[in-house]
Amino acid sequence: MALAAYPSLAQTTEELPIHFSADEVNYDRTLDVVSARGNVEVQHEDRILFADTISFNQRQDVLTVSGNVTLLEPSGEVLFADYMEVSGDLKDGIVSDIRLILSDKARLAANGGRRIGGTVTELAKAVYSPCETCATNPDKPPLWQVKAIRVIHDKERRTIEYRDAWLEVAGVPVAYTPYLSHPDPTVKRESGFLAPSFGNSSDLGFWVRTPYFWAIDRQSDLRITPTLTSSEGPVLAARYRRKFMQGEIETQASVTMDSNDDVLGHIDAEGRFDIDDTWRWGFDAKRTAEDTYQRRYGFEYDNVLTSRLFAEGFRRRNYFKIEGQAYQDLRNGADDNDSPYAIPMMEYSRRGDPGNHGAYTTLDADMVALTRPDGADTRRLSLVGGWHQPYTGPMGDIYELSATLQTDVYHLSDFVPEGALRANDGIEGRAFPQIALDWRYPLVRQSGAFSQTLEPMVSLIASPYGNNPASIPNEDSLDFEFDDTNLFSHNRFVGYDRVEGGPRVNYGLKWGVHGNRGGSTTVLVGQSYRYHKDSTFAEGSGLEDNFSDYVGRIVVSPHKDWSFSYRTRIDKDDFAARRNEISLGMSTDAFSFSTSYNFFDKLEGSEFSDREEVRGSVAAKLSRYWRTTFDAVRDLADETGGMRSVGLNLTYEDECFVFATDLRRDYYEDRELKPSDSIILRFSFKTLGEFQTDAL
């Protein structure tokens, strides 16, 4: 029976304001007591209380509740009890045999407790655990739980505190602490110590790492990580992050003094800031005191560190960027005096609006000034203007006629051309016109549940010879690879310093089959022919003769969880593979597998050697809670080959606990870095934190 049947009582409760709904409601005017029985529901603001029976003394503003008591909190928590005495607003009172389900599904249970102001819940002889109880044996202890003489959940401070607490695993006490505190489920980030880690290394000795996280405010935080080692000096690392209205910044840095009293460290900072809807600016600052420092101490690293300061703008079809760059080469044998400072670098790109017949113009401008502490200095200005006319024929054949002119002006200092006896100082220039016609004819056929496409493609390109004289340096087109991705490129060099000259024709055929359910297979094969050989292309590049090597690609994807790809370059004379890339992958809910094989012939003049390696990984879900992963990399070179790395992971994870072990052997060797073994064990008690040990 709803309370609306009692107007005088409804008026009383509206003043409180508290609302009843029950099968039976009685009102004792003498004692001013409201009693409700059967499917009782009490609502006050955003709190809702359910029970079998309720007695409300309006004079004392006390609710006495019993039988299947359930209280729904606005924060998402649910309180269960057998008996409660609470205030009329449901914020204060005492509770008997209390059980709480927090918003993250973790559970608190206690013999009794009290509520204070609707924000603090104090529990006596309480148990906390996020683990689910056993469905077949509810009395069985959870995987882990925390028992305490006293537990305080403060919603305003958003913390859960324990006094005289001990941790039990499978019902067995394993650790005791007089005080323990952790954020409640509503907290996404909170200041405090993070999980410590311990380890041992033949280089650093025994070490311990204790990170501290400081949530400075809603926009910024700082993580400080001191590391103490037995063989070297202590390491202090920090990461600072901050978001602004128009950008963000993240900085990571470290410093240490090693056993030789040398001060070492590194910095890795990045910032991006919007100026307005068109412009933004940013910076990257990356430096290290020693080439192998970051790898030795476990920080992320690149072989070449690039620091830069830039500004760029985007507007319609226009793009502009100006920046300065500095490099630190960490590779073995590299000399920083050979690394240039690129200050300034400017880039502009514009694509015009299509005309009446679809024709459009393009303009690309690039300027760079390279200054070396020891070596050649180069300043270059390049302009590339183009006109493009696309056309689609009545039979679906597609054409595009284009004409471009590239002009380059160089100012050189201390540049010694290959084979020259003295440096070339002064001005050099080049004008390089080019005209091209691209044609392709896609043919489509539908066959039941499949559709096939057959697309022949041809590019005719004409440009003059001899536009790569030795007097012009090569700074941005050093490495070149002829493959399926640049088969139809008008200039296969990635930069401006080298151009592809002479009349030539590129031709190929693309075939594909596509299923209505998403599966597909595509094949591409092609070749290039030039009328005269071009010495610009090194021996082994595949383009050194009139006819190029064959390049091709096969991609097979019969299902979204299966994929196979094969890319190759085949010698035109003896059909030997000059390049092979094979990858295979599959994935299901319980098993995934991936492997790849890579083979590259060494290109004459390239800084990179030939390579042949195979790598693979297997991941399997052994059961509901157990999973494993195995990965390996092997170098197949005849003389220097061998295993590069092997790793095995075994993980147990349920709703409240994670245990993971990693076994790894790295065979990598570089200067003082030697091959190493590592064993990593991680125990993670979800909602409490994790304990990790690393043995190197």
What does this structure look like?
The two termini are 71 Å apart. Helices cover 2% and strands 61% of the residues. The strands form 2 sheets. The chain has a 27-stranded mixed β-barrel. Strands 1, 2, 3, 4, 5, 6, 7, 8, 9, 10, 11 and 12 form a 12-stranded antiparallel sheet that branches. By secondary structure, the protein is mostly beta strands. The protein has 2 helices and 42 strands. The chain is elongated and about 110 Å long.
SSE blueprint:
Blueprint: H1 7-15, E1 19-21, E2 24-28, E3 33-44, E4 47-57, E5 62-72, E6 78-87, E7 93-101, E8 107-116, E9 120-129, E10 144-154, E11 159-169, E12 172-183, E13 192-193, E14 197-201, E15 205-209, E16 212-214, E17 220-229, E18 235-244, E19 247-257, E20 263-274, E21 279-288, H2 293-296, E22 304-315, E23 318-329, E24 341-351, E25 360-371, E26 377-392, E27 398-415, E28 424-440, E29 443-447, E30 450-462, E31 504-515, E32 520-530, E33 550-559, E34 562-570, E35 577-587, E36 591-600, E37 611-621, E38 626-635, E39 642-653, E40 657-666, E41 676-685, E42 689-695
Parallel strand pairs: 14-42
Antiparallel strand pairs: 1-3, 2-3, 3-4, 4-5, 5-6, 6-7, 7-8, 8-9, 9-10, 10-11, 11-12, 13-16, 14-15, 15-17, 16-17, 17-18, 18-19, 19-20, 20-21, 21-22, 22-23, 23-24, 24-25, 25-26, 26-27, 27-28, 28-30, 29-30, 30-31, 31-32, 32-33, 33-34, 34-35, 35-36, 36-37, 37-38, 38-39, 39-40, 40-41, 41-42
